[in-house]
Structures are given as structure tokens and as C-alpha cells.
Write a structure and sequence with these properties.
The chain is of the alpha/beta class. The protein is built from seven helices and ten strands. The protein has one domain (about 10-205): Aldolase class I (TIM Barrel), CATH 3.20.20.70. An eight-stranded parallel β-barrel has the order 1-2-3-4-5-6-7-8. A two-stranded antiparallel ribbon has the order 9-10. Helix 4 links the parallel strand 4 and strand 5 (about 100-105).
Amino acid sequence: MSEDPKPIIKVCGLARPQDATMAAILGADMCGFIFHPKSPRAVAPNLARAMATPGAKRVGVFVDQSPGEILEIMDEAGLDLAQFHGGQEPATALDLGPDRVIKVFWPERQTAGELAGLMDLWKDLAAYFLFDSGTGGGGSGRPIRVPIPASPKPYLLSGGLTPEMARSLWPPEDPMLVGFDLNSGLEDAPRVKNANALKTLLPWRR
């Protein structure tokens, strides 16, 4: 009898080198850096590049940047994937390469029909979908309050998750749920990850 597959774990909002390196060494699959200037966890591209994340995919979170700015930051920060949190056009995904895109949706923002239409539009333009709480922009730091829609793509779940909450949701009933995106649920304060929370979450992922 085979073991259940392990979830993909993305640790986002990394702003300190020691946190980024610890997350990667402990087994995070993805390390996320936020490039939205209004976020309390925003970092400059050169500082993100300087944060070592051995073995982890490097993800940039983008909200208002133009397609050209996204491509420049991807190169400057040494990123593998772009997480689209704003109103990016499908053409931007084609320029970047759909296998390098995580497209974010907010189930609390649209009706089920509107969301289904958007997911259909993006299903061939992203490697993963991500469902977050709130109605757009940055994370709200709380769980999603509506049902998760049926997704045509593998997706990550976000929204104020703690290690304990992620554990309780795995293995999932929905086979398209492949992992979790954690940020505020791993922090002592914005920009400061809790080492014990990382140690609790990531060895479990192994």
C-alpha cells in the first residue's frame, strides 16, 4: 500500500535571510517573496536574490507591476515562478511561460459562475491555481469563508493557515488540492517567521 503523497508547502512573505534559508533547509518546496510595495512584507529584488533558499523554488508575488516590471524582477531576484495577485492579463503568462505562473483567485470575491469562467480562461496559462481569502490584493490573514470551487488545475490553499490547520486538511478530500501557502500563520510579527512553527510544519511535510 503506497503512502499518501506529501503536500507542496510554500512559505511566503519571507523578508529575513535566516528565515528564508531555514524554510528551505527544513524542506519547503517553495519560498515566496512579496514585491507589492504596500505590503508590510515587501522586499526589494536585490535583497530577495541575496536570500539563499537551497533546493526550494523561488516565487515572486506581484500585484500592480506591469508585465515588463514582472520580467525584470523575476530576473533580478532569481525567481522560478510568478504568483499573480493582481489584474495581470493572460498575455503576461504567455510571455513568462505558463509553467512559471501561479494564478490567484478569491472565492469570496466572485460568484461561482464568474469564478468558473475565470478559471477556464486561465487553466492553460498557469502551473497552479491558488485560492486565498478576502477579495483581492494581499492576504487577509484568515481562512476562506466560502466553499472552495471545483478547480480544473492543481491548486494551493492559502488564507491565515497555521501548521495545525494545514495538518488537519491533509490528506484532502479534493484531489486537486496539492498543497498549502502559509505566511502570517508562521509569524511572530510581519516579516518575522517563528522558527518553532517552521520546524513543526516542514518536517511533517517530509
